[in-house]
Design a protein that fits this description.
142 residues, mainly alpha
Length: 142
């Protein structure tokens, strides 16, 4: 039932699109907003053609079908994907620690009773590896 009621508005929307595109333009468009009375803004009184009647009927049918479709139940039950998601989701979410927003700008003070951190070593004389033939260790950036 739901699938049938879903295909009806789709067919109606396609028909409405074709009917609107087949109608002749009014000629004024937004350029008529600059002056004149309401008759020129709204396009004036034109003869009611079959395409005009058909567009009103298609629009009304689309509205009614959309309202009816909103009250019809979707189907018999939930899909297998929904069941697996419900099974994987914990019943009660636990308290989670907040995520860090960035690195701290100030150095963190050591905890009381912990050994003090070693002071950074001074860089040795420039390029000592060239004398010994070893590759130098990368220097920390400051």
């Amino acid at each position: 039932m739901f699938a049938f009621l879903l295909t009806l508005p789709i067919i109606d929307a396609l028909l409405l699109s074709v009917v609107v595109l087949l109608q002749a333009g009014q000629g004024g468009g937004l350029a008529s907003l600059g002056g004149g009375g309401t008759d020129t803004v709204l396009g004036g009184r034109q003869a009611v053609t079959i395409l005009t009647k058909l567009s009103w009927w298609c629009g009304g049918i689309f509205l009614v079908l959309s309202l009816v479709l909103s009250f019809v139940p979707r189907g018999v039950g939930s899909s297998g994907l929904q069941e697996r998601l419900r099974a994987a989701t914990p019943a009660e979410p636990g308290q989670q620690a907040p995520l860090p927003l960035g690195t701290p700008t100030e150095p963190v003070a050591p905890a009381p009773g912990s050994p003090p951190a070693a002071a950074p070593q001074q860089a040795p004389s420039p390029n000592p590896a060239s004398r010994s033939g070893e590759t130098p260790a990368p220097q920390p950036q400051r």
